[in-house]
Predict the 3D structure of the following.
Amino acid sequence: MSYEELENEIDQSFVAVRYNVEIEGPAIKPDEDPDVVNILPTDEPYRAIALAVLYEDRDASLTNVKKALDEGVSPIDVINNGLMKGMDAVSLLYTKGFYFLPDLMLAGDGMMEGVKECEQVLGHKSETKGTVVSFVAEGDPHDIGKNLVVMFLRANGYEAIDMGRDVPTADVVEAVKEHKPIFMTGTALMTTTMTVFPKVVKALQKEGLEVPAIGCGGGAVRRDFVESFPMSVYGVEAYHAPKLADAIVKDKKTWKGLRKEYSDIVGEFVSEYS
Ligand code: B12
């Protein structure tokens, strides 16, 4: 019996049941998942950019971002309405168990490829308004949010000292001694690492060091947690970071004022602060 004849002999409905196709329904593409449909933008060029991240396609991400920037779309819109939406969809599929760690890594690479291109357009302002120290909490490898924070700070004229990810708390303290920053940003994505923030505050206090504010953000972080220790303010969006820094430089605000006037300072309605 030939291979083709054997194929015809096999009851395909049995094969389908074995792979649960009958129970789970036919395979659907990532962008057809009903929850993903709600996240993905419908308008171009954002949809193409978001899809490139969702499909973990680094080249397409770069090409689509370049095309949008060439057409005059603002880099901030490209990040917020395109790249971030793609990453939100990836996060959702990971949470649902359809995407796995390698998917996250590849999608993250695709996102950062596009972010780097936006960074070039945003450029670095030559004059510096002040120094900001940015870190990802000790034990935490997630650095996409921190990279965005650093990019927005630099684009707005701040010298951002990028300490990288998984930064030992002792190194953060040393950086504060060395750079005497006007503002700090910390990012933590995991419930196990966000507890680093109060530890950083304690370590600074132990050395008699103080900064006007530490902006603490990242997926797992919540406002009420951040407000349970001093010297800190909960940071919602990466592009809020330079606005918080401006309020410190121009209006001499500290963490207390930033907490009270967050929405006014960033100039928009922020549900976390309503
Ligand atoms: C991408 C990703 C990864 C990538 C990270 C790549 C990279 N270079 O960063 C990789 C694959 C490495 C990874 C690994 C792991 N991950 Co992961 N990962 C994610 C994922 C899908 C997206 C995170 C992300 O980049 N989001 C986009 C960025 C832009 O968001 P963000 O950092 O929060 O930043 C935004 C704001 O928070 C804000 N912001 C951030 N900081 C600051 C600071 C200031 C001052 C301001 C103003 C704003 C601000 O700005 C941004 C928006 O503009 C999340 C899922 C999710 N729902 O978040 C899981 C997630 C964070 N990972 C998770 C886990 C568990 C892990 C692993 C431990 C998995 C494992 N079993 O091995 C490992 C870590 C291993 C280790 N070494 O410890 C969990 C954490 C669960 C928890 N509650 O603790 C999550 C939530 C997934 C889940 N639902 O289970 N991961």
